[in-house]
C-alpha cells in the first residue's frame, strides 16, 4: 500500500513497583508508509508534554517495534520479543538510561492498518520502574 492518512490510537498502561496503575491514552491522525519491508507511522503525540505535541514515529517489521520521539522529549525504544534493549531518554531535566525487557510482542499489519500489542518491563538507570502494556491501533482514513 502506498502512503496513506491514518488514525492512530494508543493506550499505554503502567503499573509501578508500588502497584500504582496509570493509563495514558492518545489519538491522532498521521501518515503511514512502507519502505523495504518496514512499516512507518508518523504522528504528533499531544499526551506526553503539556506545552507541545511530540513528533512520534512507530517503525515495525518482523524483527520488532521501534518507538521514536523527538522534541520536548527525545527517545528511541526498541521492542524485541524476549530481548532486553537499552536506550537513552533525554528530557529538559536530564538524561536517563532506559532498559526495555519485552515479554510479549504481537504485530498484525495488512494493507496499511493493524494493531501492535506489547508487554514489557521498564527499567530506569537499571532499577525496575514499571510493568507496562502498549496497545496501538492504526486505521486507514480517506485522504478527502
Structural commentary:
Pfam families: DUF1934. This is DUF1934 domain-containing protein. It comes from Selenomonas ruminantium subsp. lactilytica (strain NBRC 103574 / TAM6421). There is one protein chain. This protein is mostly beta strands. It has one domain: Calycin beta-barrel core domain (Lipocalin). It has strands at residues 4-16, 21-35, 38-45, 54-61, 64-69, 75-79, 84-91, 94-110, 113-124, 127-140. A ten-stranded antiparallel β-sheet has the order 6-5-4-3-2-1-10-9-8-7, with no helix packed on it. The mean pLDDT is 90.
Distance between the termini: 17 Å
Q: Indicate the radius of gyration in whole angstroms.
A: 15 Å
General form: globular
Task: Identify the CATH architecture.
Answer: Beta Barrel
CATH class: Mainly Beta
Helix content: under 10%
Strand content: over 45%
Are there runs of 5+ residues with pLDDT below 50, and where?
none
Total strands: 10
Summing up helix and strand content along with how strands pair, one would put the structural category as mainly beta
Number of domains: 1
Q: Determine the mean pLDDT.
A: 90
Corresponding CATH superfamily: Calycin beta-barrel core domain
* Biggest sheet record: 10 strands, antiparallel
- In DSSP terms (H or I, runs of 4 or more residues), the helix count works out at 0
Strand order of the largest sheet: 6-5-4-3-2-1-10-9-8-7
CATH topology: Lipocalin
Helix and strand pattern: EEEEEEEEEE
Amino acid at each position: 500500500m502506498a502512503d496513506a492518512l491514518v488514525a492512530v490510537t494508543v493506550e499505554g498502561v503502567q503499573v509501578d513497583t508500588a502497584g500504582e496503575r496509570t493509563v495514558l491514552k492518545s489519538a491522532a491522525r498521521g501518515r503511514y508508509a512502507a519502505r523495504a519491508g518496514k512499516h512507518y507511522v508518523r504522528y504528533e503525540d499531544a499526551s506526553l508534554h503539556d506545552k507541545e505535541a511530540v513528533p512520534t514515529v512507530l517503525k515495525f517489521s518482523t524483527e520488532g517495534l521501534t518507538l521514536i520521539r523527538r522534541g520536548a522529549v527525545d527517545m528511541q525504544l526498541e521492542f524485541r520479543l524476549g530481548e532486553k534493549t537499552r536506550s537513552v531518554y533525554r528530557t529538559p531535566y536530564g538524561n536517563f538510561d532506559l532498559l526495555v525487557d519485552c515479554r510479549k510482542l504481537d504485530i498484525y499489519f495488512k494493507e496499511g492498518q493493524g494493531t501492535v500489542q506489547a508487554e514489557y518491563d521498564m527499567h530506569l538507570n537499571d532499577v525496575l520502574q514499571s510493568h507496562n502494556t502498549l496497545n496501538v491501533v492504526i486505521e486507514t482514513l480517506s485522504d478527502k
